[in-house]
Amino acid sequence: MELNDITVFVDESGTIGKGTIKEDDFFIITLLFVKDEDVNHIKKVFKKERLKIVNKKDALKQQLKNNKEVKGSELSEIEKRPIYEKLIEKCGDKFEIAVIVMNNRKATVKFRSNSSRSFNYLIKTFLEKHFKKRSRFKGVNQIHFVIDERNVATESKYTLQEYLNTELNLVESFSEKDIVVHYYDSKNYLLLQLADFISNTFYRYNQKNNAESRDNVGILLKQTSTNKMFKFPYYQCRLRI
Prior knowledge:
Elements: E1 4-13, E2 26-35, H1 39-54, H2 58-67, H3 77-91, E3 95-103, H4 109-112, H5 115-134, E4 140-148, H6 159-169, E5 180-184, H7 190-207, H8 211-221, E6 229-232, E7 236-237
Parallel strand pairs: 1-4, 3-6, 4-5
Antiparallel strand pairs: 1-2, 2-3, 6-7
Helix pairs in contact: 1-3, 3-8, 5-6, 7-8
């Protein structure tokens, strides 16, 4: 089996709620898996296609100039669609995504009481139950996780790296080398910005029942290893018909 060097770009939408929650409320984690040798190609395509959309609106152009990024929430799903379509057309064989969807209402109060532990557990469980068995990149030499530092409390940094290595790499061999986790500003990482676009699309679909997001979710699920969202506490779900 070929052993891959992989970078995983991680972003989230929504929050892990505390206390009793009586209505559906969703927390989304997106993982974008890319072989290291293909990172620059995907960055180039995303940058080019996003710019085509951004250049149509002065406000978005100014935001990109000032902030070095445009958040997924600033674009409609119709505006995002050609970006997704072109990415899949030009480099669909070079990346894989996973979308973890947690319903705060269905998760226990205890599970949600510590956001860092919850976040770490959700990622570990996906890697263990699905990535390890089904991913096109499952033969791993080295894997790096790149997480937007603005989504992580200072005291929570570095807990994920130790946790994943203990849970996945201590007794069994998830990867040949130790798992490494980095925390960076998304302004400097185009593929963190792409992960943000995808997270926002799935958040709109689950949280807001946004009709425009439905087609995009269908497109993006084809880039997962299972054609499904990884739903917690019920691990899998198909696109609602």
